[in-house]
Design brief:
The protein has 418 residues and is an alpha+beta fold. Helices cover 28% and strands 26% of the residues. It folds into two domains: 130 residues, Sandwich (Peptidoglycan synthesis regulatory factor (PBP3), Domain 2); 241 residues, DD-peptidase/beta-lactamase superfamily (Beta-lactamase, 3-Layer(aba) Sandwich). A six-stranded antiparallel β-sheet has the order 1-17-18-19-15-14, with no helix packed on it. It catalyses: Preferential cleavage: (Ac)2-L-Lys-D-Ala-|-D-Ala. Also transpeptidation of peptidyl-alanyl moieties that are N-acyl substituents of D-alanine. Belongs to the peptidase S11 family. Pathway: Cell wall biogenesis; peptidoglycan biosynthesis.
C-alpha cells in the first residue's frame, strides 16, 4: 500500500477542478469521515519535513521534559559551527574531571571517557546521536563555546532564532541538573530538566534535515565502534525502529528517556520520496514510544494522500491587467507544491486565493514575471509548524501581456484621472 503513494498523488490530480476568479480548488471524492487517533502519549506531532505542514497533533504546544531529544539542538548548533568553519570534524577536545565522572556513571547512557585523553568532534558527534552519550555531548558544547554555561546560553539564543520561545534549557544533553556536578548552569534547581513542546522538537528536526541532511548518515547507523586509543566500545543505536520489519524505512532521529520525561522519540522516515517527521513525548515505556510512532505513521499512510502539484500543471487563475493588449494575465504557481490531504472526502480539500502584488498590475508583463502570491489553505487543516495557517507561493505570469500604444495609455490615464 505504501508503494502506491505516488500513484495516489497522480490520481488525485486528475480530479482537480480549475476555476478562475472564484479562487477555490476542490477535490471530489466519496464521502468518508476521517477516523480519530488518540495516541498513548502525553503529546505527539507529525509534520511534512519539506513544508512543515502539521498532519497530526496532540497537545503539541505544551512543554514537557524531553530528556535526550535535547541533543538534536546541540547537533544543530554543532553542524552550524562546522559549516561556518568554527570547528572541524577533527577538532580535539579533552574532558574535564566532572565530564569523566559523568561518562562513567552507569545510571546514564555514555561512552567511557578518560582524563587526559582527547577525542575528535566526529567521535563525540557519533556517540551523541547513536549512543545518546551524555558526557560526549557536553564536550561538544565545550568545543563550541568554551564552557557549559556559555553553551547553554548559545542553545537558548539558537532556540529563539528558530522561533522557539517557550523552551526551558539547562543542559546540552537533557540530563536532570543534579547529574551535572559542578558544571550545572548557575542558579538552576537540581531537579530542573530541559523542556520543549513536541512542536519545538519538530521545528528543530525539520531545520536539521533541511539545512544539514548529512545528519541522517549518522542517525541511520545501527551501531558504532568508539575508539579510545585502541580501546573499542561498541555502541548500539537507541532507535530500535532502524531494524524494525514494518517497512516504514525509519532513518532517524533521537530517543529521550528520564523519570520526568518518560519515553520520548523524534523519528523521521522517507517513504516514496515524501519525508515525514514525528515526535512522541511521554510514552509509558520503551516499547510504547516505538509502537506509538508506528501507529502514527500507519495512520497517516492509511488516511491521507500525498498531493503533488507541479508548476507545469494547469493550476491557474486570472489577474486583471491595466494598460495591456489583454485585460488579464493567467497566473500559475511559481514552484512545485506538496500537501497531505485527507482521503475520501467531499469537502473542498484546498482553497486557493490569488493576491496580486499591487492593487494595479500594469502591462507590459513578461512570461515568468511575479504578479502576486498564491495562498493555499487545506480544509480542516492544522496549519504549519512555523505557526502559519496556509501555504504561500509566488504567482507568476503564464504568458506575456504587451502594453498598449503609449498615446492610448496616456489617454486612458487622463480619463482615469478625470
Amino acid at each position: 500500500m505504501f508503494k502506491k503513494l505516488k500513484k495516489l498523488g497522480i490520481s488525485i490530480l486528475t480530479s482537480l477542478i480549475i476555476v478562475t476568479g472564484v479562487g477555490q480548488l476542490s477535490l471530489i471524492k466519496a464521502d468518508q469521515t476521517l477516523p480519530q487517533l488518540d495516541l498513548e502519549a502525553k503529546s505527539a506531532i507529525a509534520i511534512d519535513a519539506k513544508t512543515g505542514q502539521i498532519i497530526y497533533a496532540k497537545d503539541d504546544k505544551q512543554t514537557y521534559p524531553v530528556a535526550s531529544m535535547s541533543k538534536l539542538l546541540t547537533a544543530y548548533i554543532l553542524l552550524q559551527a562546522i559549516h561556518k568553519g568554527e570547528v572541524t570534524w577533527e577538532t580535539k577536545v579533552t574532558p574535564t574531571a566532572t565530564e569523566v565522572d559523568i561518562s562513567n556513571n552507569t545510571e546514564l547512557t555514555n561512552v567511557p571517557l578518560q582524563e587526559g585523553h582527547s577525542y575528535t568532534i566526529r567521535q563525540l558527534y557519533q556517540a551523541m546521536l547513536v549512543g545518546s552519550a551524555n558526557a560526549a555531548t557536553m564536550l561538544i558544547g565545550n568545543a563550541i563555546s568554551g564552557t557549559q554555561t556559555k553553551f547553554i546560553d548559545k542553545m537558548r539564543e539558537t532556540a529563539k532564532s528558530l522561533g522557539i520561545t517557550d523552551a526551558k534549557i539547562y543542559s546540552a544533553n537533557g540530563l536532570t541538573a543534579k547529574y551535572l556536578g559542578d558544571e550545572i548552569y548557575p542558579n538552576t534547581d537540581e531537579n530542573a530538566e530541559n523542556e520543549f513542546s513536541v512542536r519545538d522538537m519538530a521545528i528543530i528536526s525539520q531545520k536539521l534535515i533541511k539545512e544539514y541532511p548529512e545528519i541522517l548518515e549518522t542517525t541511520k547507523l545501527t551501531k558504532i565502534d568508539f575508539n579510545d586509543n585502541g580501546e573499542i566500545t561498541t555502541v548500539n543505536n537507541t532507535n530500535e525502529l532502524l531494524q524494525d520489519d514494518s517497512n516504514l524505512e525509519i532513518d532517524g532521529l533521537k530517543t529521550g528517556t528520564s523519570d520526568a520525561a518518560g519515553y520520548c522519540f523524534a523519528s523521521t522516515t522517507n517513504k516514496d520520496g515524501h519525508r515525514i517527521i514525528t515526535v512522541i513525548a511521554g510514552a509509558k515505556d520503551n516499547d510504547a514510544r516505538f509502537d506509538q510512532t508506528k501507529n502514527l505513521l500507519n495512520y497517516i499512510y492509511n488516511n491521507y494522500d500525498y498531493l503533488a502539484i507541479s508548476t507545469n500543471q494547469a493550476l491557474r487563475q486570472d489577474a486583471k491587467v491595466k494598460y495591456g493588449k489583454q485585460s488579464s494575465v493567467s497566473a500559475i504557481i511559481g514552484n512545485d507544491l506538496s500537501l497531505w490531504v485527507p482521503k475520501n472526502t467531499r469537502e473542498k480539500a484546498l482553497q486557493i486565493k490569488l493576491t496580486p502584488k499591487s492593487s494595479t498590475i500594469e502591462a507590459p508583463i513578461k512570461q515568468g514575471e511575479t504578479v502576486g502570491d498564491y495562498q493555499i489553505t487545506i480544509a480542516g487543516n492544522l496549519g504549519f509548524v512555523d505557526g502559519s495557517t496556509d501555504l504561500k507561493t509566488k504567482a507568476i505570469a503564464a504568458n506575456s501581456v504587451e502594453g498598449i500604444n503609449i498615446f492610448i495609455k496616456w489617454w486612458q490615464m487622463l480619463t482615469d484621472a478625470i
